[in-house]
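Chapter review: from sequence to fold.
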Amino acid sequence: MQLVKDPDNIKIGIIGMTEGNGHPYSWSAMFNKYDQKAMTAECPFPVIPVYLNKEDYDTMGITGAKIEVIYCNDRKDAEHVAKCSLIPNIVDRPEDMIGLVDAVIIATDIGSEHVERAKPFIEAGIPIFIDKPLCDNHKDLEFFKNARAGGAKIISSSSMRYCKEFAPYLNGHFHEIGQPRLITYSMPKKWETYGIHALEAVYALTGPGFVSIRNTGSERRNIVHLKHKNGFDVIISNIYDCSGAPLTIQGNSGTVSISIKDSYYAFRTQLVKFVEYLRTGIEPVPFAHTEELMKLVIGGIESREQGGKEILI
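The token string follows.
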């Protein structure tokens, strides 16, 4: 069942930005195209024009959907994103989008802010995509579970789930390496914001069933050990100022190492999945999986704060 009145003309609002997160620039450009000169010369996130400019400009866009309205905490940010990413309307309050859009993307990555950002749209019955992580504490997870039970249309994910490099191994297709024994992945920045990237990438490969999580690191050096019901372990490192490393799966008969080279594809696919959700009402990922992932995010924080205690999921 479609969630929008006109599936061929979907008007979307976007909300941002948070420190170090330029999604309103890039995600809006994936819908609307962009001012090539302004984006290349002025975008405060240099990596964004680099990967945008690699694409065929003439074929960019997501058919039947546009970013029509933007809100940022700082209006100057909103004005600049609108200029670069060809967004026609700016509002001074998020709730001013209501009545102008069919759906909203909350493109911020601070989980503790997402309940407050989502509430006006939940109350208005507007479908929402929330950037990763959905939340970072049990109280907010309970809020979203209750909202969903009450009929709210909310989905959330990390784009890492959609990396094309992972496709041969999704949902446990590890035939070339046998049964998995150890999966390792390394991410920079904070566990609170980037841990979910590693978690969801791994989760897309293994499926649900994580038993426990232990974080023996610190806020800037998170070293995380997860156990899965199927008998393998996962080690994730989130070290703030360290470069990332390929995802490695070691099995009982071989090893594979996977590097991500096309972030544009993953971001765009995630947005396409949201548009498909609006057109069909079919979730790209069961919310039960998102819930388990949030318990892992939260468990990683709790374990670290409790001196590396093993947290049961």
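Two observations follow directly from the output. The chain is about 35% helix and 20% strand. The longest helix spans residues 287-305.
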